[in-house]
Amino acid sequence: MGFGEAGESFKCERCGKVFAYKYYRDKHLKYTRCVDQGDRKFPCHLCDRSFEKRDRLRIHILHVHEKHRPHKAFTASSILRTHIRQHSGEKPFKCKHCGKAFASHAAHDSHVRRTHSKDKGCTCSVCGQHFPEQEDYDFHMKIHAAH
């Protein structure tokens, strides 16, 4: 298939782009409208790439050199981080009860409350009803005592 030896590279003679494998260089030549670097009127002042059109140069600078990410505006950096995790799939908040992971602290806390609240609190020895909060349990026991 035309793979190179370790460290070998394959340069496109028309545009100067370098590939790790001959296969990808050949695919580039076959399927892209490769333009000679001399015909590219818009060089990037930050690297050795050049472009046929000014808007392509602008997009290159934004995405490659300025690391522009077209995200919504967020009021706090923590909210932006949570939003980015939704796209990246990162889930750093792990439930200590079951091991399930979550992208946000809020989602983790909500899961623990909904799923594992029975792990905490008190269970009535008379009727078996469970109360996550001590004061609810105490009130319930007064009802049993009154009867």
From TrEMBL:
Checking InterPro entries in the record gives: Zinc_finger (IPR050331), Znf_C2H2_sf (IPR036236), Znf_C2H2_type (IPR013087)
Keyword Cell cycle in record: no
MF terms (GO), sorted A to Z = RNA polymerase II transcription regulatory region sequence-specific DNA binding; zinc ion binding
Domain called C2H2-type: residue spans = 10-41, 42-70, 72-92, 93-121, 122-147
Q: Name one GO cellular component term.
A: nucleus
Q: Which GO terms describe its biological process?
A: regulation of transcription by RNA polymerase II
**What keywords sit in the KW lines?**
Metal-binding, Zinc, Zinc-finger
Q: Does the keyword Metal-binding apply?
A: yes
User: What would be one Pfam family of this protein?
Assistant: zf-C2H2
Question: Which protein are we looking at?
Answer: C2H2-type domain-containing protein
